[in-house]
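can u do me a favor
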């Protein structure tokens, strides 16, 4: 037997790296096993590279379309190699930062692929590490659509964010958060984008009012949106790929499949360790404190229920570590996990949509406010968007909040805070917001619930 630890975390993504730091902060001798890079898929292949490239799309768009702001740029172009280098270097910097935090907190980094043995100790290569407790944080992997394989021309989301060239034409299958981000970046780079979605709304999980604003904006970004459309056949050739969409055939340089993901649990040897999967599709079954069916083993992040989001994984890591250490903690409230999509315009939401709230039996009141009403949106030259607050009419409890537009992903935090602290829309309507900021639209949306928005 190699070294023994109080806590061994398998997977160094936003779930695992945070769990390890919290366990170490609470005095536990802790190690993380990671088969690839510190920071996991989020920092190296998903959230961070995506947002880095999206930022370049935003800067490029401002350069090309900024003449009316007094910025005249002649011959603006994208240096694809420089963009790729920056994308890689941002991830590298953040990944090194995670390693530094582990070192600072005396968390041991064990490189390699881990599995469990029947005592739920951790096996890496030839070594077995004894563990007081194990936290599984192995994340998820991309799934192609049935009958289609990934390859040079049919890529997953990481493939789309790391293309060696800027394509002339790209098709994106799946208009959820990832697919919409890819479409919005490439569209603004000047690529012809075909965004295909099976159901009749892009961003299918979002309130339809928000999705409509995004669909309108996408038309101005070289994006041809096809909702209610299924990719029926995919034929990949040397330099292109042909898709059959109903009666239509389309040839593009690349197809990105931005659809489903599956938990990455195959290597873990879960059955031998007595860790059960849920019946609804292979995620690991857990209780409110992230405990699995083996009392020594915990699971967090994309491999357990709830939305597959980095910030949810991190909070679950904190809960698992605190539970193991016997510290005071509280279960995650999945209903308060905000969603954030960084396409242009940004989309962010928390809680129930208007339709969901009605379906759940609430007597619903809605406050809707257009971002264009506040001064800051004129200052920042970005007037498209709305804030929508869904409240229960009895006491004013905020059931859901939905924002589309400039800085939506930052602004949603305020709504999450109010909901978490059980404030109502009436309190939010009296909280002073700094001027001139887009956040003043949140204030007016809260006032709009009772019909007294100032700038409507
Ligand atoms: C393109 C894209 C963009 C996204 N953007 C966002 C975003 O903007 N915001 C957001 O909140 N979420 C975003 N997500 C979702 C987010 O990436 C995930 O929810 C998050 O990474 C989950 O964190 P995790 O810790 O569970 O797993 P991961 O980040 O997947 O990390 C798991 C780690 O475990 C390692 N591992 C797996 N098996 C083993 C093993 N047996 N032994 C050792 N190591 C192992 C893997 O190598 C990996 O490094 C995005 C996802 C995609 C695909």
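np, heres the sequence
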């Amino acid at each position: 037997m190699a070294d023994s630890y109080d806590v061994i975390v398998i997977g160094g993504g936003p779930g695992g790296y945070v769990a390890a730091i919290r366990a170490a902060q609470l005095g536990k001798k802790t190690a993380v096993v990671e088969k690839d890079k510190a920071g996991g898929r989020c920092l190296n292949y998903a959230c961070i590279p995506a947002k880095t490239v999206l930022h370049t799309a935003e800067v490029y768009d401002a350069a090309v379309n900024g003449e009316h702001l007094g910025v005249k740029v002649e011959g603006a172009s994208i240096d694809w190699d420089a963009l790729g280098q920056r994308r890689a270097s941002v991830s590298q910097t953040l990944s090194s930062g995670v390693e530094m935090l582990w070192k600072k907190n005396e968390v041991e980094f064990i490189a390699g692929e881990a599995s469990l043995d029947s005592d739920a100790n951790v096996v890496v290569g030839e070594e077995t590490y004894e563990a007081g407790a194990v936290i599984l944080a192995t994340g998820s992997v991309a799934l192609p659509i049935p009958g289609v394989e990934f390859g040079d021309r049919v890529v997953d989301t990481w493939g789309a964010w790391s293309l060696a060239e800027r394509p002339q034409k790209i098709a994106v299958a799946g208009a959820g958060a990832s697919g919409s981000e890819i479409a919005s970046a490439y569209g603004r780079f000047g690529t012809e984008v075909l965004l295909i979605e099976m159901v009749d709304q892009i961003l299918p999980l979002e309130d339809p009012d928000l999705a409509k604003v995004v669909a309108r904006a996408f038309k101005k970004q070289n994006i041809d949106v096809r909702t209610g459309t299924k990719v029926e056949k995919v034929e990949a050739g040397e330099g292109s790929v042909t898709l059959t969409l109903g009666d239509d055939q389309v040839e593009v340089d690349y197809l990105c499949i931005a659809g489903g993901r599956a938990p990455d649990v195959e290597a873990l040897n879960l059955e031998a360790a007595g860790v059960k999967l849920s019946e609804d599709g292979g995620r690991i079954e857990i209780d409110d404190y992230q405990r699995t069916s083996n009392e020594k083993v915990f699971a967090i992040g994309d491999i357990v229920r709830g939305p597959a989001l980095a910030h949810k994984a991190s909070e679950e890591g904190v809960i698992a570590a605190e539970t193991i250490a016997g510290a005071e903690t509280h279960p995650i409230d999945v209903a308060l996990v905000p969603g954030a999509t960084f396409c242009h315009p940004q989309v962010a939401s928390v809680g129930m949509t208007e339709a969901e709230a009605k379906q759940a039996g609430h007597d619903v009141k809605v406050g809707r406010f257009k971002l264009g009403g506040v001064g800051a949106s004129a200052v920042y030259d970005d007037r498209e968007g709305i804030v929508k607050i869904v409240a229960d009419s009895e006491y004013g409890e905020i059931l859901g909040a939905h924002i589309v537009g400039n800085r939506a992903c930052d602004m949603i935090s305020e709504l999450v805070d109010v909901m978490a602290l059980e404030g109502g829309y009436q309190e939010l309507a009296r909280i002073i917001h700094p001027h001139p900021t887009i956040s003043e639209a949140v204030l007016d949306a809260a006032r709009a619930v009772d019909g007294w928005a100032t700038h409507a």
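DSSP finds 13 helices and 22 strands in the chain. hope that helps!!
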